[in-house]
Amino acid sequence: MSKVGSAIVATVLLALAAPPANSAPAADAFAAARKAPPLLRAFLYRMPKGGDLHNHLSGAAYAEAIIRAGAAADRCVNPATGAVVWTPPCTAPNRPLRDALTDAKLNNALVDAWSMRDFVPTSGNSGHDHFFAAFGLFGGAASAGDLAAEVADRAGRQRMRYIELMITFQSAQLGNLADTVAKDHPWTGDPAAFEAALNAAGLADLVKAATPEIDAVEQRMRAVMQCGTKDAHPGCGVTVRWLQQVSRTGSAARVFTQTMFGGLLQQADSRVVGLDYVAPEDDPKALANYTDQMHMLDYLHGRLPATNISLHAGELTMGLVRPEELLFHIRQAVELGHARRIGHGVDVMYEENPFSLLKEMAQRRVAVEVNLTSNAQILGVKGADHPFPVYRNYGVPVVLSTDDEGIERIDRTHELQRAVETYGLDWNALVGLERNTLEYAFVEGASFWADPVAWRPVRECGGANPASEATGSCAAFLGTSMKARLQWALEGDLIRFNRETGQKPN
Ligand SMILES: [Zn+2]
After folding, report:
1. What's the CA-to-centroid distance between 312 and ligand 1, angstroms?
2. How far is the CA of 343 from the centre of ligand 1 (A)?
3. Structural domain spans, the chain
4. Measured at the alpha carbon of residue 444, what is the angle toward residues 337 and 305, in degrees to the nearest 5?
5. Which residues have their alpha-adjacent CB atom under 5 A from ion ligand 1?
6. Between 20 and 30 A from 39 (CA), which of 267, 370, 443, 478?
7. What pLDDT band is residue 22 in, cutting at 50, 70 and 90?
């Protein structure tokens, strides 16, 4: 064999033995595609991806899908406001939502009201206001299972392996329980006393009741996607996990009740992998109670330390709130709220001592869920003003996510493209971002990666080829961890993608 020939063989063997970060064909195809946005879109769409870790179920479904599902459920709508009204008969001025399937004018008005499509800010109605108002209009129009099917399918078509969907299980029941308990035991800032009152009032019953609720959502989702049949949709191959939402704009009693419930639910049902605080961070109640709420999470962490906590923090910017509100949210979320992931983190450079915070996040491997389009639409922060490159330069793990792809009228591929075009990412960076979406996922099990920076696999799988079936110690290890199986699958997808791209360079 010639020297060149043996070098080629050695390279091929190396490529098979090691994860395919920088494999030439895909990297070359990416370099060619990025010269024109339409080519880049097509390339990124079919590139294998990890997951989406910041994805609110209600904001992820497109308005058209909500109209379809709501029409099938006989909902009504007020055409003047765009608000869904629950029960028929649809007396004037309300109309059947079904009308929007054939009446293009009504359809257009609803899609515009329920999303950022064609939105033009006017005095008193900013992007922020229009965005958050949408949730209140279409809420309850469609079942969670229908919405989840649409979102999982879209993820599958984009070759994602995993999604974490934010949802509020037992929503009304939790509100009622908190309010009832608070009547006799008003919140005094003593979490142990309030927890005892909650337990006496039957918090555990709500945790039990959540499991059949999750069963029903997942059954409906799979039925819509025709999983297990020959017509199975792409979403059937996507692993779905749930993050329980806590609304930070509620009373202290409600926020604490939802917080404890989130921890207990994760412990009771493995399909729920953690909790997240949601609702506008700039809401006056959310601002006033921010630190108190972080103390509630500190208490939860003491009681149930395995709870995975992701927190919207720093979804703020200059002008939206007083500068003093920009000084501490992310740091408190990390240090007091025990957040393993931060949602948005846009105002990080306004924090007190931002550089020490960045170093701390890098050292503790606290990931930031970056939602570029959402931040542009809600906060007006984009391009060079966004801290995405700062986080990366300081070694803070970053994942690209969508936030509310239906309201934003985007998808996960769009966010990858936006990051590539705005920040000039190379192929290595792209692969690293996708690996991050599984590495920092809350899905159960140990990581495939012993070193999640250099991307060195665990000893059991060193030298194994993810494009083939795992054997021996690697198979045994993968058998113990759902997370590692997803990561192994992504590596296999990337090797095959590289191989296919080499054969078909266009
Ligand atoms: Zn969000």
Report:
1. 6
2. 7
3. 62-137, 144-439
4. 30
5. 403
6. 370
7. low
